[in-house]
Write a structure and sequence with these properties.
30% helix
Amino acid sequence: MAKRTVRRTDIVNVAVKRLVELIVEGASILDLCVEGDKLIEEGTAAVYNKSVKGVKVSKGLAFPTSMLVNNCVAHFSPLSSDPLLAQRLAKVDVVKLHLGAHIDGFAAIAAETIVVAMRLVRVGNKNWQVTEAVSKVAAAWDCKPVEGMLSCLQTQNVIDGKKSIILYPGKGQKRDFETVTFAEGEVYGIDVLVSSGEDGKARLEESRTMIYQRDHMVSYQLKMKTSRAVFSEVQKKAGPFPFNVCVLDDEKRARMGLQAAVQHSLVKPYEVVYTPPNTFVAAFHFTSALLPGGPSLLTHPPVWYNPELVRTEKELRRVVAAH
């Protein structure tokens, strides 16, 4: 188990480090996403190539590489048919990357990392303690966590388990959201998304959905031949993990087939999410295991972070006022 954990997290960390080097002015968002998926596929292809007791070990992408620019919050991984195909990064853009790898169904997912939340994800603590801490830190810098975003328990072949943490509950969510206690042996993917907007509100763009995921808890016999064929291809290529439509053989046919699968809850869409124009979103994601000796960080802290180079507007105002 330990060897498997090291291998998949190393693959993710190497991919993140390489992509950070490629995020420069003029870089193509599509090319960056393609390169991220390629790095994960190549990394996982190099390990566990022999069958174990006659069973081939599953491995590959646990989450398609996504590039989220400025006020884009989540799930943007462009297709070759996308109208924003030609979009390239500008000097003033704020960019988040999000990707993941799995070996034998055990996932390691990363975006960027915030350590303050990790200290609270420990055995015996409750999910609301993390919610409150993130809100207080964001408020100290005149920011808001993005409303309704979840961090979830991860188990084999599952990255969105029933135990979860909500960053910034919307109206009615805090009342209805389940209180959970963290337990030894659990693994969590902590997803921290912070907006420069005043209220943390975000909107969905369902018409631009590119990423989907099979729901292994739902079964239904699809009636259309095309839908059955597409769903079979999804099961073969992605298994229980999120996938980009571009991995399927025919995008137009895939979208037609996925409609019925979504309608009957066999597959769930990951809608592209944005905060209002002229706001910016920072994303931090780490995978943490709750071990007997305390929480263990499986994916690395931000590879780009340097306190001498990173300043908030609030901090800059203080420096100016002091002089």
